[in-house]
Amino acid sequence: MKTGRMFRGFFVKTISFVGYTVQYGCIAHCAFEYIGEFVSCSGPSMEPTITNHDVVFSERVSRHLCRIQKGDIVIAKSPFDPKMNICKRVIGLEGDKVCTSGPSDVFKTHTYVPRGHVWLEGDNLRNSTDSRSYGPVPYALIRGRVCLKVMRIQSHFLTYSLPQRPNHKHFEFELLPFYVVFINEFFFLKQAVQMILS
Question: If both were cysteines, with which of 73, 131, 184, 186 could 146 make a disulfide (CB 3.0 to 4.6 Å apart)?
């Protein structure tokens, strides 16, 4: 009898745990998909605005409302590898005339961005693989718009900075250490959800 009760108790607890995990996993997935997520960037293509290993927050609302503008920094799926994300600046929207040449090219060439596409380039033009290499990027590949960047973690404060658009003022603010813990938990939860959904 004792063994049976123990087994039933263990079974109920297990089912309850799985149920809560799935429930919170679905909530987290919806939050990542429709609200935003923290993304760790790598590579030199967006220097000096975003450097290697910088953490940024990518919000999804602008993308769903089709409010991506020229000058915005976006996270998008790579046209070459759908498993890889790229971080670039929007240089042109559909119908815009953009320069397709590199900064060192003597003769400049131009093209028009086709309908339903955007033209993406890195801020570090001499060390960036972008639309100059793979052409206009479909709007559907945009995952979100970068609105915050984690600048540095100090002893008492976590400092954020908004990535600058051209000719826009720099803005930054500080958050208390509580949010450092929250962000760490956010990364952990995101990885757990991705493992569950994969």
Answer: 73
pLDDT of 7: 61
Per-residue pLDDT, 3: 59
Question: Which residues fall within 8 angstroms of residue 31, CB to CB, at 6 or more apart?
Answer: 37
Choose the catalytic residue: 13, 16, 42, 45: 45
pLDDT in tens, 11-54: 667 777 666 676 666 665 565 566 788 888 888 999 988 888 88
Q: Is 149 a catalytic residue?
A: no
Residue 3 lies in a domain: no
45 is catalytic: yes
187 occurs within a structural domain:
yes
Give the CA distances from residue 50 to residues 39, 54, 79, 82, 145, in Å, rounded to whole numbers and listed in that order.
12, 6, 21, 22, 14
CATH of residue 146: 2.10.109.10
- Which helix (H) or strand (E) covers residue 129, if one does? none
pTM across the whole model: 0.69
Q: Which of 58, 88, 149, 161 is catalytic?
A: 88
Scan for tokens 């970068």, then name that residue: 146
